[in-house]
Amino acid sequence: MHVDIVRVEQRARDFGFRHAGLADLTAGIEMAESLMGSAIATAEAVMRMDVVTGMTAWVTGDPVDGIFFVLPLSPAGEQAVRDGSYHPADPAPTHLAWQGRDVAGVYIGVYAGATKEARRAVMTAAAVMRVELFAPVPSFARGATEDGKRSMASLGFSPLEGGLPDLWVQEALSTGSEAA
Fold this sequence. Notes:
By secondary structure, this protein is α+β, with helices and mostly antiparallel strands.
């Protein structure tokens, strides 16, 4: 499947998100790590991911109070997530879909909000973008916190054994190219 990066940007803006630069990304990562109580990825690593995908790093708020990482996966990346060889904090470039081309899956690196409004924006953006832009492919995320597991369950994800620890999946919602 091919994903139109311009359309991703437009839909993200509809929910108050902007494509993150380094300063916003650093602030967002710090906020997410404080909420989760664990490290996720460095801003530099996320910027490298974003260069490959063109659509990874999103933030909302001023100051930043919400963050969303979406990583379109290549066929090799989708398999690596399922078999546990994917490295979420610094994936191999070959595991990422280049600029929306040949997307075989999507990995949600993090979604977090520090306020009720930010959490609502993150959850709404995650649900709508999943259905509108990534429905034909499986979507993966890790259950890093109990709140995260509950929110994934509310979005229709279920635990997946055999891959990364605490891996959750929502298999493809449709087939064809209607979401591209």
